[in-house]
Amino acid sequence: MRLRAAQVWNYRSIVDSGLVEVTDRVSVLIGKNEQGKTTFLRALLSFNTKDRYSSADFPTHLRASLEEANAPEITMVRLWLTVDRGQPS
Q: Is the pTM of this model over 0.85?
C-alpha cells in the first residue's frame, strides 16, 4: 500500500492541515521552525495502534470540548491509500 494523501485535524498545534498529497517520487514538508512539520509527521505516526494519540495531543484551545466528545468520533488523521498492483501486500 502507498500513502497518497493525508489530512490532520485537532492534533497538537494543527487544527486542520488541509489535504496534503504525497507523490511517488519526492514529497517535502517545508515550513519555518515551530510551524508543525514534526507535529504533522507525529500525527501520521499516531495512525499506528502502537502510537495512538491521547487527550494531551488535542490543541490546547480545543482540549476541554474534545475531551468531552466520544473519542472514536473525533477525526484526527485521515489517510488515502492505494494498493500497488503486482507488489506483495
A: no
